[in-house]
């Protein structure tokens, strides 16, 4: 039976997760997840309430299990394990990071196994049938900008990965909660009263992390692909004026290749896909300090290319 997670009684949802697991659909992927950890279950119920879920058996792209290790570490400095297809690809993390390891682990699964797409480390959003690609390195302000746009009428495709269909050059939508770190959490809390956050997870290797719930419309429309029109490399710099500077296509090409998870695996197809992406887009470097100014800049830019 197909339903949204939010339509399932919480007790039923929890029982399925603790026993045979539940299958969650996020765009082109179905993930079967099993866990008995209360904080993970509660965070999923909040952040994934609008996603389709399947309680019956069926095909899943990824089979995941989040659980405590069967050792003394269950009780002394408790840890948590991430299991993928009965394999454990990562070292255990401290128990409070259980929900984070689910999101990080699912990102790892997609970037390592979804080679039907060219995958670039980037946020992707769409407005007026045109998509914008925002590649970024840690600390560049990509996720903060992505969250601001998603809360301002843009449709979220992904905060982490641009999935490009090599046969059509279109971007495929797989929206999941946006991971925000440290100061960005309060920036977005103060930016929008409609922002819904899960638990804050402290003392990770990235500092404090909280995940922002995806606007419902982005989930409902996730089967609709979009053509990329703009590539903008964002950089947050405190006190900087908002500036959008044209970037050469050759420079953009090389940087996208460096930010791709599977460019070398795709070989000639990867080269052709990046070339098509670059050919179809205007490319920019983007610097900002004001989130409101940044959103106005992209609203204006997307209107100009229609």
Instruction: Note the overall shape.
Output: globular
Q: Strand fraction band?
A: 25-35%
Q: Determine the number of helices (DSSP H or I, runs of at least 4 residues).
A: 10
From the structure provided, what is the oligomeric state, counting identical versus distinct chains? Answer: single chain
Q: Determine the fraction of residues in helical runs and give it as a percent range.
A: 25-40%
Number of strands: 18
User: Main beta sheet: strand number and arrangement?
Assistant: 8 strands, mixed
Structural class: alpha+beta
Average of per-residue pLDDT values: 94
Q: Give the uncertain stretches in residue-range form.
A: none
* Computed Rg: 19 Å
Order of helices and strands: EHEEHEEEEHEEHEEEEHEEHEEHHHEH
Distance between the termini: 41 Å
Brief description of this entry?
This protein has 306 residues and is an alpha+beta fold.
Structure write-up:
The protein has 10 helices and 18 strands. The protein has 306 residues and is of the alpha+beta class. The strands form 3 sheets. Strands 8, 9, 10, 11, 12, 16, 17 and 18 form an 8-stranded mixed beta sheet that branches. A 7-stranded mixed beta sheet has the order 1-4-2-3-5-6-7. Helix 1 packs across helix 2, helix 4 (142-150) packs across helix 10 (291-304) and helix 7 (249-258) crosses helix 9 (268-280). The longest helix is centred in the middle third of the chain and has 16 residues, at 98-113. The N and C termini lie far apart (41 Å).
């Amino acid at each position: 039976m197909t339903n949204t997670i939010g339509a399932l009684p919480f007790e039923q949802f929890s029982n399925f997760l603790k026993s045979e697991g539940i299958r969650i659909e996020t765009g082109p992927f179905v993930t079967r997840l099993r866990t008995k950890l209360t904080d993970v279950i509660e965070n999923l119920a909040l952040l994934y309430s609008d996603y389709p879920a399947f309680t019956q058996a069926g095909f899943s792209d990824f089979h995941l299990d989040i659980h405590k290790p069967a050792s003394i570490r269950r009780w002394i400095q408790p840890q948590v394990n991430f299991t993928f297809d009965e394999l454990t690809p990562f070292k255990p993390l401290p128990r409070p990071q259980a929900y984070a390891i689910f999101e990080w682990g699912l990102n790892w699964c997609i970037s390592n196994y979804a080679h039907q797409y060219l995958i670039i480390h980037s946020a992707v959003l769409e407005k007026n049938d045109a998509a914008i690609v925002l590649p970024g390195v840690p600390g560049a302000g990509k996720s903060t900008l992505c969250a601001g746009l998603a809360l301002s009428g843009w449709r979220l495709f992904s905060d982490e990965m641009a999935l490009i269909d090599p046969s059509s050059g279109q971007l495929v939508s797989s929206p999941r909660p946006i991971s925000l770190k440290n100061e960005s959490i309060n920036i977005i809390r103060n930016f929008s009263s409609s922002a819904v956050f899960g638990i804050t997870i402290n003392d990770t290797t990235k500092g404090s992390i909280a995940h922002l719930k995806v606007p419902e419309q982005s989930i409902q429309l996730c089967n609709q692909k979009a053509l990329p029109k703009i590539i903008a490399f964002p950089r947050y710099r405190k006190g900087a004026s908002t500036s959008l500077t044209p970037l050469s296509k050759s420079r953009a090409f090389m940087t996208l290749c460096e930010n791709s998870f599977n460019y070398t695996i795709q070989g000639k197809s990867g080269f052709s896909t990046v070339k098509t992406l670059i050919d179809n887009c205007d490319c920019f470097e983007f610097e900002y300090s004001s989130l409101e100014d940044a959103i106005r800049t992209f609203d204006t830019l997307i209107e100009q290319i229609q």
